[in-house]
Structure formats: structure tokens, C-alpha cells
Fold this sequence. Notes:
It comes from Kouleothrix aurantiaca. Residues 28-117 form the Aminoglycoside phosphotransferase domain. Pfam families: APH. This is Aminoglycoside phosphotransferase domain-containing protein. By secondary structure, the protein is of the alpha+beta class. It has a single domain (8-118), classed as Phosphorylase Kinase, domain 1. The chain contains 3 helices and 5 strands, in the order H-E-E-E-H-E-E-H. The chain has helices at residues 11-17, 55-71, 111-118; strands at 23-28, 37-42, 45-52, 81-86, 91-96. A 5-stranded antiparallel sheet has the order 1-2-3-5-4, sandwiched between helices. It is globular.
Amino acid sequence: MPHAMLPEATLPLLAxxxxxxxxxxxxxxxxxxxxxxxxxxxxxxxxxxKAAEAAPKRAGLRHEAxxxxxxxxxxVAAPALVALCExxxxxxxxxAALPGEPGVAxxxxxxxxxxxxxxxx
Length: 121
């Protein structure tokens, strides 16, 4: 199950968090710069996983997971937290994938198309 976007050391954490479920690494994510990340399917559910090794980055994932957990059920368009997996060296945050495309994908479009994607009233 090796994948360029998720370090090999994180894969046992995912396997332990989802025992008996098939975990498929599908593709790297587009955009973002802080964490190794990838699209995956866990038990048939499309997800995004972010991994962090450095202590400040692991703390950032824990903070994001806490915020996303607090937003659950409040009508905010945010991905659902599926799991936060941790070891002494790594943290892996697993989020439900949302429909659509990453915001960074719109920057190659004409300005009017960008406005249609980025501005919601």
C-alpha cells in the first residue's frame, strides 16, 4: 500500500484505526502545502488523510480535528472528522471527502469563472 503522499510509517496507524476495513490509497491531493496528504477509500468511504511528523505539525492536526469535531451538526460546510490516529512519532487526520474540486484548481480559470466558484451569496 505504499504511496508517495503518505509516509509508509503512517499506514499501520490507519490499519489499526480501521480494523478489518479495506484501505485503498487513491491519489495525491491537489493544493495544500503543510502536510503529506492523499485521497483514500476506507471501507468504501472516500476520505482525505493528512499526516504530520514534527511535533508542531502534529499539534496542528490535533487542533484542526478538535475544531472539526466542534463543528459537527452545526450546519457548517466543513468535512466530517472520521479519525485522528496517533503514535509517538506521527499523527494522521482522516476526513470525509467533500464533493467538488479543491479551491486551488480554480486559479487556472478565467476571472469570471473564478468568481463563480469562489463567491457564494
